[in-house]
């Protein structure tokens, strides 16, 4: 599945290019709890079609009712306004919060841009498709838009005169190995908005691949990693258990800005991998500090789908800047469970707290 922001902008571009009227809604402020974070966007077409989300659905329904004829009929006169952008606030009162499905005490404010320029949207989408992050600045007085390349992610910025929202290209995942675990992980990554590439030079594995939407390549993994050009919106995951395939690819990935580089394997296998890299590839503990393994969070998983859930959860946590509790670390949890196995009398104090 395509990155949600890119999908919204692409669809809005297509509507505007075809001559349809449309609006772009951006969450610019929230108070208390809110269904969607600041910076979230949705687009609404004159025929009532919606892409993206700013709430659980009730606010979208209200915007459709107010600004299109989809619910109110052709004679209602409801249509998308023209002119400068406008602000609208939902959930100011408890009754409104309940009506629009907002959490208790939740309030959000939207900026509505009417008929965004098709040419500007095309430029923005093309840049995102090319892997370039972009900063989109909207002048509140008249809705004019300027675009500039962005070098890093940034929070939405709203001033008295303009709105600045930074959009990045879709997140990417490179998976080394086309086995069963890779199929589950690729499926989860795709519906989480990642573009997925799977690399496996072994024809017997590639021939059985069954996940639509993932690109499958056959070159040697280290060459694929080099050509992949991983950036801060990319992750590289090695799942073959074969040092001939995993090791060089991981070393190549550690040279990049990938936000996540990791490999499947037991604590012993991961220790042996690091030792090989230090002895034969002139690595150090410091140079391997970013290499994750055993990957995933500890949920007691043993089957391929559960292991994939564990790995995907860790990748998303790292992507979102969340520091996981130490007792969710696979190696730490299993070390503590090993202590329990050796001394059952220590069960309560030695078990990870989240599983005690």
UniProtKB/TrEMBL annotation:
XdhC Rossmann domain segment(s): 173-315
Gene3D superfamilies: NAD(P)-binding Rossmann-like Domain
Domain of life: Bacteria
InterPro entries found in the cross-reference section: MoCofactor_Util/Proc, XdhC_CoxI, XdhC_Rossmann_dom
Pfam families named in the record: XdhC_C, XdhC_CoxI
Ranges where the XdhC- CoxI domain occurs: 15-69
Protein name according to UniProt: XdhC family protein
Organism expressing this protein natively: Rhodoferax sediminis
